[in-house]
């Protein structure tokens, strides 16, 4: 007969209620997400949402148009994920929050790409008919619109992708022209000659927003101008005024010298000869020459020129005001004509002693201060430098030569310096001056200030007798909400100090400045009937409507085409995009939209770009901003915090990331960083994000498994819940308020962190940990288990909705796993409605219990390491106080027994282990026997 001890022990696993779900732990997002996208497409998710939200309060985010050129990059991804988060959270709150994406389709970058293809085929763009060239630009833009659209959709961005707005749509081009005419009709538009940022490579004017500054090494020179007359200081005649410049190419266009009236100047003698070649047949020895410089800059002048000053070299001191009425001779005056004209000394309040010599050479063609000062004294630009950066063929000095941005041309051994050296006027020249210099952000080439006739919108001219555009814009900035707040100061400072808005460009692919100018008066025609015909023509034909052949029909019978010049410049693309609020929000093509927008959201560089152009356009035509709030994000750096650059090889391609990780990981990254500042991305960072995702996914997997078979018959009212469930409901209500506030604040980093922290700390590490025993081992009818599953159902409905804005694909997968349907979606759901909290405030007690739980866990750990106990279930614990009864605390701490004591102590229990629930309890008489609870549960299951 066998011994009783040899009898096999009963395996109770088949009586334990383990979670059951088909939801996999491994996400496989790169494979699953495209199928989910296809389902949404078939479902008509966006249009269904519009139908469901019809009549509700609107929230309008107006999309800033990305440029239709090239693949999506990480900046596009971040930007559109943030926009999608705004739209989804506002939708979740029950609002009608449409999203109409758009693209900026005109402008130089597209022309540049089309021209590149021409150059490969050895075609000359200027020989291609304008209409044909524009058609190729339009086709190029459409190709990239289509490409970027599919790439952005892959991110899970929900929008009206079948009907986006394009600045090259005929209706949009017509509206842009109509908006321009509003400026013309109110007298804000004018044509004038001013120095503007000019790209010799691209042969067009550029806006400030098209400029980026980079350190550059330039040639610095000191040049002597002989003083010919000085009525207030005759002793200065024959001395040489010295100027310092880092743009040697402007010397051939010099027309004056500027001084500071209150600056102290000195006259110094030099025993050094700077002559090296005959000039006009005679050698200029320049021995004992006198030089005029600002006294505070004398040492710097001496260091640059290595001048040997004679004993007692300072022979005179005087105030700058004594230079009033003085004139000098240009170093190349021997060439005659323009160069033989006297160069007057002019007082300029911009002249300082920060650097140089305290005297500034003036070229009104190539500097703002130069232009304004010379204009005030009747000195006009001469337009010596052409569009490509070369001096005019007829220019007496260096005619036909250039380009002025060519380093060799402006170098210390280049033709400019060589001629000045030969004239005895070059005192110093070196190719080592490092400074921040403007470059075109497209071509990366240097730009120059160049005076050309351009079209401007005045910012300081009263609009119809009222406030100026600058005043209106500053008032609008004050009335707008900025997130972060520092954006207000940034755009405010830019608007406060900006010049008139130059809106003309000398290119082909863009919206023409569709105006006729009277050849006699120079005034543009402002006739409502003509304007209406022009707008109608653009609506029918787009920009091709503006042709020479169309002039008679557009002018109509009241005007002679011979009397009018058709303007051929096109509009700055920033004016185009600045009008998007008009042809998107107001057009009626998207009836779900309205003007003004609730929010504009772009990168912080758009304070000088789209935010500002939209602000100026709207303030000039409507008297207020087109937005109520502006949200800005920083730029994405590499893992080391360095700016991404193809040359550095540190770029991160979002398309590759989605192939490796899936879009939801990219979304979680974008919504986890502090996007209002510059932020980082890299392999280690994404690995951390993937781990964060895994924990969230496992939370949903646990919820799905734990809720298997849950139905309404099992639900319990809050009044019948144990205290722990009521405490968790309190936490969910608190989380609800925090998430709502994060949405109001557009604080998505906090929103995402709150969800993750709640899932990890409050659920997985606390609530789930405590209640897994009840879930697995309590009888199905047990009140605690039913209350727990009821609370899990509340959590499921709340968390899946809250997470849907962040993890759009995963939330859909979770929802369809529990509630499969042909036409349903988690994204149709509103913000969760939570059961009301119980009136008793138990939160403080449970905070104390949780703090005590941490102390108990820490006290158990040394015994676990020493293998005195294998798990906390084998521990008897004493604690200083009992906030709950001892049995409830033992359940919360997951220990065998809790007793009152002076401090937290832990010993191994001598209780036996239940063979089903594994708890060590006094009622179990031998290891692997059953406790009373398990006996009842097994009996209930068997019945």
Question: What would your notes on this structure say?
Answer:
The chain has 943 residues and is an alpha/beta fold. The protein contains 27 helices and 31 strands. The strands form nine sheets. Strands 6, 7, 8, 9, 10, 11, 12, 13, 14 and 15 form a ten-stranded mixed β-sheet that branches. Helix 26 (886-893) links the parallel strand 27 and strand 28. The model is unreliable at 1-5 and 274-287 (pLDDT under 50).
The major sheet is characterized as: 10 strands, mixed
Distinct helical segment count: 27
Radius of gyration: 38 Å
Categorize the overall geometry: elongated
Structural class: alpha/beta
> Roughly how much helix do the residues carry, as a percent range?
25-40%
Low-confidence segments, given as residue ranges, are 1-5, 274-287
Strand content: 15-25%
| Average pLDDT, all residues | 92
Straight-line distance between termini = 33 Å
Number of strands: 31
List the helices and strands and how they pair.
Layout: H1 29-43, H2 45-53, E1 61-62, H3 74-92, E2 102-103, H4 108-120, H5 130-154, E3 165-166, H6 170-185, E4 189-199, E5 204-205, E6 211-229, E7 240-245, E8 256-259, E9 264-270, E10 289-294, H7 298-305, E11 309-319, E12 327-329, E13 343-347, E14 359-362, H8 368-376, H9 407-410, H10 415-422, E15 426-440, E16 448-457, H11 469-479, E17 481-483, H12 486-497, E18 501-502, E19 504-505, E20 516-518, H13 528-541, H14 551-555, E21 564-566, E22 570-571, H15 573-578, H16 580-585, E23 599-603, H17 610-622, E24 629-633, E25 636-637, H18 654-660, H19 663-670, E26 679-680, H20 683-706, H21 723-744, H22 748-777, H23 783-804, H24 808-818, H25 843-865, E27 875-879, H26 886-893, E28 897-900, E29 905-908, E30 912-913, E31 920-921, H27 932-942
Helix pairs in contact: 1-24, 4-5, 6-13, 11-12, 11-17, 18-19, 19-20, 20-22, 20-23, 20-24, 21-22, 21-23, 22-23, 23-24
């Amino acid at each position: 007969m066998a011994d009783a001890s040899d009898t096999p022990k009963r395996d109770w696993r088949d009586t334990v209620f383990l979670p059951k779900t088909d939801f996999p732990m491994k996400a496989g997002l790169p494979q699953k997400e495209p199928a989910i996208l296809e389902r949404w497409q078939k479902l008509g998710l966006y249009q269904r949402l519009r139908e469901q939200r019809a009549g509700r309060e609107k929230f309008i985010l107006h999309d800033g148009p990305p440029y239709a050129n090239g693949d999506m990059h990480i900046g596009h991804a971040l930007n559109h994920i943030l926009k999608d988060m705004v739209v989804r959270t506002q939708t979740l709150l029950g609002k009608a929050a449409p999203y109409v994406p758009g693209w900026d389709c005109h402008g130089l970058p597209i022309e540049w790409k089309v021209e590149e293809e021409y150059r490969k085929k050895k075609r000359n763009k200027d020989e291609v008919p304008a209409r044909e060239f524009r058609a190729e630009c339009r086709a190029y833009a459409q190709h990239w619109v289509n490409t970027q659209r599919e790439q952005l959709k892959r991110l899970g961005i929900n929008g009206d992708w079948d009907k986006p707005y394009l600045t090259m749509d005929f209706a949009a081009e017509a509206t842009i022209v109509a908006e321009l005419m509003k400026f013309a009709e109110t007298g804000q538009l004018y044509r004038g000659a001013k120095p503007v940022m000019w790209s010799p490579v691209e042969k067009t004017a550029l806006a400030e927003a098209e400029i980026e500054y980079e350190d550059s090494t330039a040639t610095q020179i000191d040049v002597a101008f002989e003083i010919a007359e000085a009525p207030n200081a005759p002793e200065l005649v024959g001395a040489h005024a010295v100027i310092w410049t880092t743009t040697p190419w402007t010397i051939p266009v010099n027309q004056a010298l500027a001084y500071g009236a209150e600056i102290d100047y000195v006259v110094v003698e030099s025993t050094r000869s700077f002559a090296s070649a005959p000039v006009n047949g005679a050698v200029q020895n320049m021995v004992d020459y006198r030089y005029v410089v600002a006294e505070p800059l004398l040492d710097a002048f001496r260091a640059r020129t290595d001048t040997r000053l004679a004993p007692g070299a300072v022979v005179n001191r005087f105030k700058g005001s004594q230079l009033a009425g003085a004139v000098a001779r240009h170093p190349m005056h021997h060439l005659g004509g323009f160069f033989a004209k006297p160069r007057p000394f002019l007082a300029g309040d911009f002249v300082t002693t920060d650097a140089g010599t305290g005297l500034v050479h003036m070229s009104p063609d190539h500097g703002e201060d130069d232009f304004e000062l010379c204009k005030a004294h009747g000195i006009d630009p001469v337009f010596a430098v052409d569009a490509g950066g070369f001096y005019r063929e007829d220019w007496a000095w260096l005619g036909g030569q250039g380009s002025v941005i060519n380093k060799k041309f402006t170098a210390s051994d280049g033709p400019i310096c060589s001629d000045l050296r030969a004239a005895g006027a070059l005192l110093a020249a070196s190719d080592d001056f490092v400074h921040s210099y403007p470059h075109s952000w497209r071509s990366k080439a240097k730009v120059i200030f160049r005076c050309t006739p351009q079209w401007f919108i005045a910012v300081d001219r009263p609009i119809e007798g009222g406030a100026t555009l600058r005043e209106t814009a500053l008032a609008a900035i004050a009335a707008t909400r900025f997130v972060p707040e520092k954006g207000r100061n940034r755009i405010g400072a830019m608007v406060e100090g900006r010049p008139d808005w130059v809106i003309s460009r000398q290119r082909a692919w863009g919206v023409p400045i569709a105006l006729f100018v009277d050849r006699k008066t120079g005034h543009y025609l402002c006739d409502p009937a003509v304007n209406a015909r022009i707008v109608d023509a653009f609506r029918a034909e787009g920009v091709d409507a503006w042709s020479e052949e169309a002039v008679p029909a557009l002018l109509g019978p009241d005007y002679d085409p011979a009397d009018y010049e058709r303007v051929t410049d096109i509009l700055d693309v920033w004016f185009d995009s600045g009008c998007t609020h008009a042809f998107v929000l107001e057009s009626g093509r998207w009836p779900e939209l309205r003007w003004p927008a609730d929010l504009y959201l772009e990168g912080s560089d758009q304070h000088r770009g789209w935010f500002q152009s939209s602000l100026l356009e709207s303030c000039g035509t409507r008297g207020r901003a087109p937005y109520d709030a502006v949200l800005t994000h920083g730029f994405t750096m590499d893992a080391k915090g360095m700016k991404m650059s193809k040359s550095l090889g540190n770029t991160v391609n979002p398309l590759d990331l989605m192939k490796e990780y899936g879009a939801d990981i990219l979304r979680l990254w974008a919504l986890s960083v502090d996007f209002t500042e510059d932020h980082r991305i890299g392999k280690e960072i994404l690995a951390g994000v993937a781990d964060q995702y895994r924990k969230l996914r496992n939370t949903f997997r646990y919820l799905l498994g734990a809720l298997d078979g849950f139905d309404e018959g099992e639900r319990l009212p809050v009044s019948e819940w144990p205290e722990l469930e009521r405490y968790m409901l309190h936490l969910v209500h608190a989380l609800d308020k925090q998430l709502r506030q994060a949405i109001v604040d557009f604080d998505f980093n906090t929103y995402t962190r709150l969800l993750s922290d709640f899932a990890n700390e409050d659920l997985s590490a606390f609530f789930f940990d405590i209640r897994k025993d009840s879930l697995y081992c309590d009888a199905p009818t047990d009140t605690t288990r039913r209350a727990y599953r009821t609370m899990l159902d509340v959590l499921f409905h709340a968390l899946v909705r809250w997470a849907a804005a962040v993890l759009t694909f995963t939330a859909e997968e979770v929802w369809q796993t529990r509630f499969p349907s042909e036409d349903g979606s988690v994204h149709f759901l509103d913000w969760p409605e939570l059961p009301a909290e119980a009136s008793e405030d138990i939160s403080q007690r449970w905070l104390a219990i949780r703090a005590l739980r941490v102390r108990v866990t820490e006290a158990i750990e040394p015994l676990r390491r020493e293998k005195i106990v294998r798990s906390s279930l084998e521990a008897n614990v004493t604690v200083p106080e009992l906030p709950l009864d001892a049995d409830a605390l033992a359940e919360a701490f997951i220990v065998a027994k809790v007793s009152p004591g002076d401090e937290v102590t832990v010993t191994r229990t001598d209780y036996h282990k239940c063979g089903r629930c594994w708890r060590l309890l006094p009622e179990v008489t031998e290891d692997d026997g059953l406790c009373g609870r398990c006996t009842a549960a097994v009996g209930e299951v068997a019945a």
